[in-house]
Design goal:
single chain, 290 residues, alpha/beta, Rossmann fold, 7 strands, NAD(P)-bd_dom_sf, SDR_fam, NAD(P)-dependent dehydrogenase, short-chain alcohol dehydrogenase family
Length: 290
């Protein structure tokens, strides 16, 4: 069902992982998708990963949409302003903004107190994970509210409950949920909405590399960590976000934090292998109590 034909989406931070999964699934529903990031065929970002935005754009087009790769550092207001001006000039509309910029893993020091964690790295984490979202929304929302039905999806990790063992990481992910709530309040008068979405244990490219497996053979990693059986591919949350974007009643979820499993149940979706993992529930019922 090509329910997003004619719709324009911006996936900020679409080089890999959830961002790429979301962009591809939006393309599968026929959307035009601007995919942004700092890693391109011309050079890598400081994360030094091989994935590029050009690869993501090609995958969007192959899925049936129109992928447009634009190198953007979302911590630079000028670059973001230029991106939004281009979207406006080329299409005159923006129907979906996915704020997925992150790039903070390399700055997180797990298990350290606020006085032990390197301050500079911690503040960089906040800048990467919160400031970039604010900058992007500041420039993109005036275009999004030109039409009713626009949606903002703030990508986070968890629902903001349990402390995440790094004060800076925890602040970023909880702040993103609050950003969704605040933006939803401000978008309501314009007939638009904002939600937060969290995947479960994501089989990102980096995670697959860590376990030494590929997506096709990911189950081999369960021998190393049995909880990995409840992991999910990036396309799982991608399908959920795409279904949400295609739902004319998506505003009923405004201000909420939704998991990939919540979206799968709501829209009757499965992961690529036909499963329907619910890692947040698994964590609460199995891992947390031991």
């Amino acid at each position: 069902m090509r329910t997003l034909v004619g719709k324009v989406a911006l996936v900020a931070g679409a080089t890999r992982a959830a961002g790429r999964g979301i962009a591809v699934e939006l393309g599968a529903l026929g959307a035009t998708v601007y995919v942004t990031g700092r890693s391109t065929a011309a050079g890598r970002s400081e994360m030094d990963r091989p994935e590029t935005i050009e690869e993501t754009a090609a995958a969007v087009s192959e899925a049936g949409g129109a992928g447009i790769a634009v190198r953007v550092d979302h911590s630079d207001p000028g670059q973001v302003a230029g991106l939004v001006a281009r979207v406006g000039a080329e299409h005159g509309r923006l129907d979906l903004l996915v704020n997925n910029v992150w790039g903070g893993d390399m700055f997180t020091e797990w298990g350290k107190t606020v006085w032990e964690h390197d301050l500079g790295r911690g503040l960089r984490l906040l800048h990467q994970g919160v400031d970039t979202h604010l900058i992007t929304s500041h420039h993109a929302l005036p275009l999004l509210i030109r039409r009713t039905g626009g949606l903002v999806v703030e990508m986070t990790d968890g629902k903001g409950g349990d402390y995440r063992e790094s004060i800076y990481y925890d602040l970023v992910k909880a702040s993103v949920i609050r950003l969704a709530q605040a933006q939803d309040f401000e978008l309501r008068p314009h007939g638009c909405a904002a939600v937060a979405v969290t995947p479960g244990w994501l089989r990102s490219e980096r995670m697959l590399d860590k376990f030494g497996v590929t997506e096709d053979g990911w189950r081999a990693a369960v021998a190393r960590d049995r909880h990995f059986a409840m992991s999910e591919s990036p396309r799982y949350v991608g399908r959920g976000v795409a279904a949400l974007a295609a739902d004319p009643g998506a505003g009923r979820f405004g201000g909420q934090a939704l998991t990939s499993a919540d979206l799968a149940v709501t829209y009757d979706l499965t992961d690529l292998d036909g499963s329907r993992p619910d890692f947040p529930r698994y964590y609460d019922e199995v891992m947390k109590p031991g």
